[in-house]
Amino acid sequence: MASAASDAAPVLEPEPPRRGPAEEEEDEEQPAVTAAELELAAELAALRSADARRLVLSPRRLSGPLPAGLSQWFPALEVLDVSGTGLAELGAELLALPQLHTLLAKNNRLGGPGSLPKGLGQAPLGRSLRVLNLSGNRFAEVPPALLELHGLQSLSLGGNRLHSIPPEIQELRSLEFLYLGGNFITSIPPELANLPFLNYLVLCDNKIQSIPPQLARLHSLRSLSLHNNLLTYLPREILNLVHLEELSLRGNPLVVRFVRDLTYNPPSLQELAGRTIKTRNVPYTPSDLPENLVRYLSLASNCPNPKCGGVYFDSCVRQIKFVDFCGKYRLPLMHYLCSPECSSPCSSASQSSTSQSESDSEDEASVAARRMQKVLLG
């Protein structure tokens, strides 16, 4: 009998209840949590502190997007470094960090659509951020969202793919440090001169061909890095940068060759008449002339040649004048004269080292020697 009982059919365990299609679909929609994300959550939980002020997320810790609970875990965070983690976007998790003043996100994959969170300028982060480093990413243009960070003091976008500097850069009125080296920038907008507190301007390793004379209004500027560009001359207004201590120019054509062929467009009849009025001090009042001519006459520029008392408006001779810096280097500065007849007192580039050119630049050389403490030409 026992043998018969043992040969009976085995008892089957009850099958688990069947899951409906809706439950199975819900499971498929939930993303799987990776081991790296679990590890990051555990590390952040261990680091979590109500008064934690600095957080560095290394590539070992962060292999995906920023964790969603960042602002709840670190409400007092002031410095966040996510450099080299391969991030393709900085998510909305950052916007709720009201005390974050330094964000370092170098050497990532930022630059595509959605790289920066929406509403950055209006968020608490937009008001608190002072230092932003996005160097070594893939930005082809300066993101408009950055131009809304009016409290920003330091901005680094070196080693990206920028081809231009937007005129709206002037909106960053608090900016003291601007690093745009290692891009493909071809020109500098005059609006850059409207940054009253800018101390350090780095534009090296680009494709810049000329410097706008308006940069002479950057009276706080102490360091100007222009090496490895395509500059053939500098505007003479650069001597007005009274606080400039460092000027880096190595690797530019102006160091090894100079502009030789300069053209001159004859003045128009209007300019000839305007020159006559200004040089002969012909009296006039606003009621004597149309408003546009009165405004035109107010735009006259004095010829810098000390042996010429002429003026010019739109037509002038662009010429290179050599000026000594620190008694060691001779740099070609752009010089504007009222006519070709004025070129004899100021030797042109084709007569680059004549004694006349040297004598003409003595006064400017002494001024430059006091102001330029360090000139880097190689």
TrEMBL record:
Positions of the UniProt region annotated as Disordered: 1-33, 345-368
Organism superkingdom: Eukaryota
Positions with biased composition (Low complexity): 345-358
A GO-annotated cellular component: cytoplasm
SMART domains, sorted: LRR_TYP
Keywords annotated in UniProt: Leucine-rich repeat, Repeat
Keyword Iron: no
Pfam families: LRR_8 (PF13855)
Gene3D superfamilies recorded: Ribonuclease Inhibitor
UniProt keyword Acyltransferase present: no
Protein's name in the database: Leucine-rich repeat-containing protein 58
Protein species of origin: Patagioenas fasciata monilis
